[in-house]
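agent> fetching stored inputs for the flavin-adenine dinucleotide docking request
agent> found them:
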Amino acid sequence: MTAQSLPDPVPSGQSPAREKSGIPKNPGRRDLGMKVSLLFPDREIVEKFYVPVIYTACRTCYSEEVPEEIFAKAVDGGYDPAKMQKLISSVIESGHGSTIEHVVFTFAITGVSRTLSHQLVRHRAGVAFDQQSQRYVKFKGAATMLPHSIAEGDPALREKYEEQIDGALGLYGEMLEAGVPGEDARFVFPNAARTNLVMTTNLRALIHMSGLRLCTMAQWEIRRLFQLVRHEIFSVSPFLGSFLAPKCVPLGYCDEFKNRDEHCPIRPHKDNVLGAWAEKAAAARAGGRELPQA
Ligand SMILES: Cc1cc2nc3c(=O)[nH]c(=O)nc-3n(C[C@H](O)[C@H](O)[C@H](O)COP(=O)(O)OP(=O)(O)OC[C@H]3O[C@@H](n4cnc5c(N)ncnc54)[C@H](O)[C@@H]3O)c2cc1C
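agent> prediction call returned; pasting tokens
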């Protein structure tokens, strides 16, 4: 497939979505031609075993019961599900992260650009990747990602971009035909080249990655990827899915220095929170009371 053979980010005849605020446009409204599927586990396994496994890890820390007993009772419905969720939520919120390293999720990720995959594989802790090889696969119809700023921008620039991409892919094919090994011919591939991966991650790493990549400061394509990841987790467990959020949500404030102007209003910026605290401390001091210093 070429750049032209995948759906445009904005289908023809439709006007681009209007930006409502300073937050970067939500890529979730666009069909980027990428796909995320949760390969394992399915909803039944998550419902029957995942919450009990996490609960067992949490409760073992605070109970005289042995883990086998806790797990068997949890699987058999011997604990109130709401109480199980409450303990798990409190433990996660208090940062006791090892309790959620006991469950893993495996995703098929297809049609993302190499620009995205290069960012994704920077995550190291608690996550494993396997990626389509550009050495062993001979790409007869390599597909590419078309960024919406180019798709919707100056038509002459878009034409030039597509010429470059098609030229690079054409040269790749020529080199293969001339006997250049795939591992060398691939040097001409653009960052836009699409790729496929399998990603397995424990829940702690997934929450961490989602915190960074669902943030509106993240690059649009990887942000979209994590929106799809979150959708997949929600489809097997709305409870576990609820922990996948931009990092500012559990933190209570934004720590991105590029958001000091609070153009993304999801949470107040750290500087403003600390400023408000300093004012409160000064007012308390004036009234003869000392507040703890931040
Ligand atoms: C918005 C954004 C912009 C970025 N821009 C750039 C950029 O311009 N250039 C660039 O190079 N990268 C960039 N990155 C990548 C970033 O620096 C990280 O490499 C990437 O997000 C992986 O996250 P992580 O370090 O939390 O690693 P993970 O592997 O996800 O690790 C999870 C956590 O485990 C702990 N941990 C993991 N490994 C170690 C270790 N070896 N030692 C101690 N603790 C460890 C840390 O607490 C870490 O946060 C960007 C990331 C984001 C989200």
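agent> quick read of the result: The longest helix spans residues 155-177.
agent> awaiting further instructions
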